[in-house]
Design goal:
This protein is an alpha/beta fold and 118 residues long. The protein has five helices and five strands; from the N terminus they run βαβαβαβαβα. The protein has a five-stranded parallel beta sheet, with helices on both faces. β3, α3 and β4 form a beta-alpha-beta unit.
C-alpha cells in the first residue's frame, strides 16, 4: 500500500512539480493550495507525512505545524516545512516541525527527507 503525503503549497507550479515527483517516488499524493481547517483536511486524507510551505494564504505553514503537533489525534504525523526563508528565522516561531527543506530544493533531497519518516 502506498504511503500518503499531503502537500500544502500555494504556488501551483511548485505544487504540480512536487506532486509529480512524489507520485513518481511511489507515494499517494494529495495537493492543496491552502487551508483554514487543517484538522479536517488531515482527517479526510489521513496522510503519513505532511509537506507544507511556510508562506500560505489562510493558515501559515507555521500555524499548520503548531495545530497538528498540539492536537492529540494528529500530533504523531511528521510535518516537513518548506520555505525560502532562512531556517533560523522560522525556528524563532518554535513550530515543532519534524524537518525543514529550503527552497529551492533538490527533488532527490526532498524525497529522501520524506522517506526518513515512512
Amino acid at each position: 500500500m502506498k504511503k500518503k503525503i499531503l502537500v500544502i503549497e500555494d504556488d501551483t507550479e511548485i505544487l504540480d512539480i512536487t506532486t509529480q515527483v512524489l507520485n513518481n517516488a511511489s507515494f499517494e499524493v494529495t495537493g492543496v493550495e491552502g487551508t483554514d481547517d487543517i484538522i479536517s483536511l488531515v482527517k479526510d486524507h489521513r496522510p503519513d507525512v505532511i509537506l507544507t510551505d511556510y508562506m500560505l494564504p489562510g493558515l501559515s505553514g507555521g500555524q499548520i505545524c503548531t495545530i497538528i503537533k498540539t492536537t492529540k489525534e494528529t500530533a504523531n504525523i511528521p510535518v516537513v516545512l518548506m520555505s525560502a526563508y532562512h531556517k533560523q528565522a522560522i525556528a524563532i516561531g518554535n513550530f515543532n516541525y519534524d524537518a525543514y527543506v529550503k527552497k529551492p530544493f533538490d527533488i532527490n533531497y526532498l524525497v529522501s527527507v520524506i522517506k526518513r519518516f515512512i
